Amino acid sequence: MLLPSIVLLAVFVYGFIGRTAWVSLSNWGADPAQALALNPKLEFIGFENYRKLFTGIIDVRFRQDLVNTFFFTIFFLVGCLGLGLGLAILLDQKVRFEGLFRTIFLFPFALAFIVTGTVWRWMLQPRGGVNVLPELIGLPKLDLPWLSTRQQIWQFDWNHIPAFLAAAAALTLLILAIRGWREARKGRAAAQAVVGIGLGAWALVGGRDVALLPYQEMHGFNIAFIGIIIAAVWQMSGYTMALYLAGLRGVPEELHEAARVDGASEPQVYRHVILPLLGPITLSAMIILGHISLKIFDLIWAMAGADNATTDVPALLMYLRSFRANRFAEGAAIAMVLLVMVATVIVPYLRSSLKGEVRR
Amino acid sequence: MSADSLSVAGRGRSWGRGRGRWRWMVYLLLLLATVFYLLPVYLVLVTALKEPAAITLADSWRLPQTWNWGSFAIAWEAFSPKLRNSLVLTISATVLSALMGSMNGYILSKWRFPGANVVFPLMLFGMFIPYQAILIPLFQFLRDIGLYGDLSGLILAHVVYGLPITTLIFRNFYAEIPDEMLDAAKIDGAGFFGIYVRILFPLSISGFVVVIIWQFTQVWNEFLFAVTLTRQSTQPITVALANLAGGEAVNWNLPMAGSILAAIPTLLIYIVLGRYFIRGLLAGSVKG
Question: Which residues 197-236 in chain A show a CB within 8 A of chain B?
Answer without folding.
Answer: 234
